[in-house]
Design goal:
Elements (H helix, E strand, L loop, with lengths): L17 H17 L4 H9 L19 E3 L2 E3 L2 E6 L16 E5 L4 H4 L8 E4 L11 H6 L4 E6 L4 E6 H4 L8 H4 E5 L2 E3 L13 E3 L2 H4 L3 H16 L3 E7 L4 E8 L20 E5 L6 E6 L1 E5 L1 H6 L3 H17 L5 E6 L15 H4 L4 E5 L15 H9 L2 E5 L10 H6 L4 H4 L10 E5 H5 L3 E7 L4 E7 L3
Parallel strand pairs: 15-16, 16-17, 17-18
Antiparallel strand pairs: 1-2, 2-6, 3-4, 3-11, 4-5, 6-7, 8-9, 8-10, 11-12, 13-21, 14-20, 15-19, 20-21
Length: 457
């Protein structure tokens, strides 16, 4: 049991009078201890039959790796790396080569779900391979906000890349950024270069074209050998020294045997398909589909109503405790940005058999999916399958008629949430299909997934 992301992590600026610094430290220790009573760690312990054991809590006080840059203190780069890559988007990426998510500044942005900001996701065997294909996508899916400690204000802060570079040149900048110009993203010509901060894109291309990915793979291999299992590692680099901040066993999904994608299925029995970011697995006999239509959700006028939909999902998660169900919804489940997805915690979705994120293209923008975050690690460790859908891609299978027009059981299951029946649809599959169930087949090697209606298995 990794307990990754379950307890609080608190950054302190450690500035001011000694009495003030001590008070801040004592308060932070108390807050970390108190986080053992949060809903997510309690649920996590209950699911692993640990609820009756004493909580073996310890508080680690760790010096923040970094350098002073103007008023800010931060590492040059930081991130998290995994021995095994469960999130492959190309057949050229091998599972055992590992994966890293890397950012400029504090590593919080590499492991936490954040709004519309993106760490660099690196398959360590093919480090220059990325899912984006053109300059616009590379810039869009890059890091723009940096987490740091503001020493003047004595607090954790989030700043833009432009603001960080206002005072002086940042160490290793030529290895961290690329320059966007005339529809292209390219490496700086030399270590000393002159380009507007607004034209810089965080890519780490200069670093990834050198020995660093191999160095990180070697570290992962040594640690995995010592642990006797794959590991995930949080790391930071201050411009001179590479630091391993923590290591723990990597959450493992039980490996499925070869999954056969059914052929010759009538079109009306196909509900959705996917051909990107597919992991291997089979989910049979799904009785309920909880479907939040991305277009209808986008039309919800207020943040209060969108928050209420998140609470409704949590109630449905409890109401369907004894049923086999899946959740389908827009953008990013768990996002703090209500415009990007439904704000839920792991405790609100933990009973689903699959979490489906629907990335609808709107105004030329397709939201990021959830690979590599603590939230997604919960899904992996709990055996909850994850699948992103891109209905607007050419050739995509997406049976909108079934999802939108099947009888909605929401008012029956949750009368309190009936007002949201135009956005949240709860489909009882056997009732809507004359006794059929939903079966989902996912084959990572073939990069195919297909959900079909069929008799109970």
């Amino acid at each position: 049991s990794a307990f990754s992301g379950k307890y609080e992590s608190i950054f302190l600026g450690n500035q001011g009078r000694i009495e003030e610094r001590l008070d801040s430290l004592v308060g932070a220790i108390a807050e970390v201890y108190a986080s053992t009573l949060g809903p997510d760690p309690i649920l996590y312990r209950r699911e692993r039959n640990l609820i009756d054991y004493d909580e073996k809590m310890a508080v680690l006080i760790q010096r923040v790796v970094g350098i002073r840059h103007g008023r800010y203190y931060l590492p040059v780069l930081a991130g998290v790396a995994f021995s095994q890559n469960e999130w492959r988007w190309s057949p050229r990426i091998r599972r055992d080569d590992g994966l890293a998510r890397m950012v400029v500044g504090l590593g919080t942005r590499a492991v936490d779900r954040v709004g519309d900001d993106y760490p660099r996701m690196i398959p360590l065997g093919m480090p220059t391979l990325r899912p984006e294909i053109d300059a616009t996508e590379i810039a869009r899916y890059s890091q723009r906000t940096i987490d740091a400690i503001d020493l003047d204000a004595n607090r954790f802060d989030r700043i833009s890349l432009e603001r960080l570079l206002e005072t002086a040149s940042f160490p290793e900048l030529h290895r961290i950024v690329s320059i966007r110009d005339q529809g292209m993203v390219s490496a700086p010509p030399t270590a000393r270069f002159d380009a507007a901060a607004s034209s810089l894109v965080v890519t780490f291309d200069g670093l990834l074209s050198g020995p660093f990915p191999g160095f990180l793979r070697e570290i992962l291999a040594v640690l995995a050998d010592a642990y006797g299992s794959p590991v995930d590692v949080e790391f930071a680099f201050d411009g001179e020294t590479f630091f391993i901040l923590q290591t723990r066993p990597q959450a493992q999904r039980i490996q499925a045997s070869e999954v056969v994608i059914p052929e010759g299925v009538p079109a009306e029995r196909k509900i959705f398909g996917a051909s990107r970011f597919v992991s291997t697995g089979t989910i049979e006999n799904v009785e309920y589909v909880v479907y939040v239509d991305p277009i209808d959700y986008d039309r919800v006028p207020t943040a209060q109503e969108k928050s209420a939909i998140g609470y409704l999902i949590g109630r449905l998660n409890d109401r369907l405790e004894k049923a086999r169900f899946i959740l389908m919804g827009p953008g990013r489940w768990g996002s703090n940005n209500l415009n990007l997805g439904i704000r839920v915690r792991y405790a609100d979705i933990h009973r689903t058999k699959a979490l489906i994120e629907i990335a609808r293209t709107q105004a030329g923008y397709t939201p990021e999916v959830s690979y590599g975050t603590h939230f997604f690690q919960d899904l992996v460790e709990s055996g909850i399958s994850y699948l992103p859908l891109y209905p607007d891609e050419e050739g995509a299978i997406f049976n909108a008629a079934f999802l939108r027009e099947s009888p909605n059981m929401l008012a029956t299951l949750d009368p309190e949430g009936a007002a949201y029946a135009g956005v949240v649809r709860v489909i009882h599959v056997p009732s809507a299909t004359g006794g059929l169930f939903l079966h989902i087949y996912m084959n990572a090697e073939k990069e195919r997934a297909l959900a079909v209606l069929g008799p109970k298995a």
